[in-house]
Here is the input.
Amino acid sequence: MRAPLDLAGVGIGPFNLSLAALADPIDGLRAVFFERAPEFRWHPGLMIDGTTVQVPFLADLVSLVEPASPLSFLSYLKDCERLFPFYFAERFHVPRAEYDAYCRWASRRLPSCRFGQTVTRVSWSTVDGSFALDVSPAGRVLARNVVLGVGTAPHLPAPLRSMANVVHSGDYLPARDRLVAAPDVTVVGSGQSGAEVFLDLLRQRTSGGLRWLARTPAFAPMEYSKLGLEQFTPDYVRFFHGLDEPTRDRLEPTQWQLYKGISAETIGEIYDELYNRTVGGGWPGVTLTPGVEVTAARERGGRVELELRHVQQGSTATVLTDAVVCATGYAERDLGELLAPLAGLIRRDGAGRIAVGADYRVELTAELDGSLFVQNAERHTHGVGAPDLGLAAWRSATILNAVCGRKVYSLPDRTAFTTFGLR
Here is the structure.
């Protein structure tokens, strides 16, 4: 039997791809990453023309830890002979489709990435002194350390689940032609995805009803001030992790504009489109209403009837629409079945969530000769930066330093001008 891997990754999204990229040059480190999909794809249903990644291009897989890496975004441009066009384009935020192409380029250069391989269970083998992964079709794989990077799943509000005329924004493009042709469409959700879908439908639909509903009190801009963005630094992550559980749970919902807001550019484009429709008199035939939640929904004659409640007014209304696009975000995947054999070993917090240490190591109830880590499953312990691409390389390097038991990557002691908390 072959010796256990030093590191096995479950899932290959941007975060585990970052980990694979930074693990690749480490001498002697045997790492393999498994992904059930046949190739890397990043939100294919949201590749709307003109949309960009909301973080600068330096938030690639490696640059904020190792800018000289051959797998950086600039290395990708060089390999594609596009450095000069990029230079003259003067783009700090790259098109979403280009980020997806860059990640696929990187994945093809990493022999540790195994696509079309599904991990169904992770257990601990006392005989082998390592984790045992059931991988289809590869079979049983042993690893001393495991990193879960299975990503998140589209979230639909309970009243709108399992309805034929309801789609999540993550599946927007396949449904786009049908939505453009529908007599009446409702977009639910106030974040960037909701704004992009609404803007695209506004531009494509020449007639019919179109409305945009959001539970947030306003169609608000994302926090993008320079000091505000320091809440996406390692300094703030450490501060947030050091707070007690009740304080973290109270704080996180108040930070909604850090991750549920809309870019000022997209807000401007929506407003300009609406304004242009008033030229010559009249108002555009669309409705934009924040502060509204969907309390119930039912199918009625091939259409969708929505029961609405205004959060501040307390008033209610009923809307009949032909299709609903839910831009209602993503939820962490349920790891229960995958980690069922480890259930008795994993510590949980007061709300039953996985307890995660500062170095992204899952806290276990027993001493094992290996560690289980998570990526983008720790917002409750590390804050709203958990799904942020800008922290990907830093988190990956932190995990690799822990796996190797030494400082493989030198990470800065300070990353923000702001001092979080009193010392």
Notes: The first strand starts at residue 7 and ends at 10. The chain is about 25% helix and 20% strand.
